[in-house]
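Hi all, posting the design record for the shared folder.

TITLE: backbone redesign
STEP: 1 of 1
STRUCTURE INPUT:
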């Protein structure tokens, strides 16, 4: 493999993955909404999923596709219109690519796609593996439809992999900066009971897992993309406070307060999913940051150096 087509390349994970792939010598074709200037190893191609428009040259000489495109689930309240956009941004986008591939004039052999641990819903302290049925709620059914849309590539002779990603922790942006912000001000507090499990992964391990899936043709189907150490909301806040040297003294924020403010979106903060990475570990993948302590120390130490 030498050329990889990436959807959602401008997102946090997409940018890190593009940088890692080019460092390894790959050429990246990035599908974007607005034209951008090419570099030596990154070529940009435009598309518009809503209008069904895609630059047909984006798949020329491409060996594999990484599908990361999707509307941000935490950006706006989940109105009916927003829920539809979240779903279609994931399913219609890969459908548009498969429509292009169905012409047969390409050399693409595999598709590695994002999915989410929202697939499982609120399962408290049950250990969750990939063979569970999807939750009968918005996120569960969205992830299920997303994975089914990706799996349709098998009818085109493609190897398909879907990685159910937990919350990605990184120095820049993402959920961790929002969680850490009040703690840095000495105003941190657990949310709800604090007992809800947060499936998480360090950005470097997420990127490494996408590359591992690309480079290991034995992988097929669904794998959980989460670190081996499960943590609760309370444990996460305590560990952040410890590393930052800040107190964690405020009482927990009651669940009903979050629900009154956020509505259904409060599920992102209150649902519990204790997700197992055993399947990807058994496939040979190894984590660089397997514990929450090593992950947070790396991120916050980098943050201090960059200040």
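Okay, here is what came back for every position:
SEQUENCE:
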């Amino acid at each position: 493999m030498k050329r990889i087509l990436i959807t959602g390349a401008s997102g946090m994970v997409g940018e890190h993955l593009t940088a890692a792939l080019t460092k390894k010598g790959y050429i990246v074709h990035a599908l974007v909404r607005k034209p951008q200037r090419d570099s030596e190893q990154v070529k940009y191609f435009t598309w518009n999923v809503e209008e069904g428009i895609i630059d047909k040259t984006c798949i020329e000489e491409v060996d594999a596709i990484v599908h990361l495109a999707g509307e941000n689930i935490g950006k706006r309240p989940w109105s009916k219109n927003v829920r539809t956009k979240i779903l279609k941004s994931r399913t219609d986008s890969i459908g548009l690519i498969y429509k292009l591939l169905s012409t047969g004039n390409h050399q693409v052999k595999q598709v590695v796609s994002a999915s989410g641990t929202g697939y499982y819903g609120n399962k408290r302290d049950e250990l969750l593996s990939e063979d569970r049925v999807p939750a009968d709620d918005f996120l569960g059914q969205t992830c299920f439809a997303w994975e089914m849309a990706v799996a349709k590539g098998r009818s085109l002779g493609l190897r398909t992999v879907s990685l159910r990603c937990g919350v990605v922790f990184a120095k820049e942006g993402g959920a961790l900066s929002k969680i850490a912000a009040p703690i840095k001000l000495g105003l941190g507090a657990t949310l709800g009971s604090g007992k809800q499990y947060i499936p998480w992964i360090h950005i470097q391990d997420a990127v490494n897992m996408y590359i591992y899936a690309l480079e290991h043709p034995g992988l097929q189907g669904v794998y959980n993309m989460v670190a081996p150490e499960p943590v609760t909301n309370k444990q996460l806040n305590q560990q952040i406070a410890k590393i930052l040297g800040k107190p964690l003294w405020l009482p927990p924020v009651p669940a009903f307060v979050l629900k009154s403010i956020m509505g259904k979106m409060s599920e992102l903060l209150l649902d519990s999913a204790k997700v197992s990475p055993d399947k990807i570990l058994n496939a040979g993948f190894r984590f660089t940051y397997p514990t929450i302590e090593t992950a947070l120390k790396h991120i916050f130490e980098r943050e201090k150096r960059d200040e």
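COMMENT: The chain is about 40% helix and 20% strand.
Let me know if anyone wants the other runs.
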